[in-house]
Specification:
Elements lengths: L7 E3 L5 E3 L3 E3 L2 E7 L5 E5 L12 E8 L2 E8 L15 E8 L1 E7 L5 E7 L3 E4 L4 E7 L5 E8 L5
Antiparallel strand pairs: 1-2, 3-4, 4-5, 6-7, 7-13, 8-11, 8-13, 9-10, 9-12
Length: about 150
Amino acid sequence: MVKSLLFIRHSGNIGWTLYNIANSANTSVLYVMKNQSTPVLANIFSSLPDQLPEELFECLLKREGLLIERIISKGHITPEGQWYDQAWDEWVILLRGQATLSLCCDRQDKKLISLAAGDYLLIPAHTRHRVEWTSAEQAVVWLAIHLHKPEA
């Protein structure tokens, strides 16, 4: 039974349209439409490495203003003292595992957010954030969508 579906379709001069994520029984599938007649089929949970010395970032799709990546963690955290501070919005969903993020909306305010499989979060541009903890028992699988603003 398909719960939801993610595919991206070019919409003329509007750009790419993002829909949902497919999850059927034990298989999640990413459908990407380069054009309406050429679908590309892949599995978000395929090729998960057994050994993961570093957090793994894999580009699934990159287009003007859009980057979709699979992130795989296994006990990984952001290095001490390091914060991500991006000039674009990032939408992230935890597909498998558990994680804890820190968000700083200003220099004084730090908020811890615990995520479990299925939880998602929009991180607005210039919101400082870091990964504080990820479960080490199994690979943690994230889907991140980076929404870059068009350059003027």
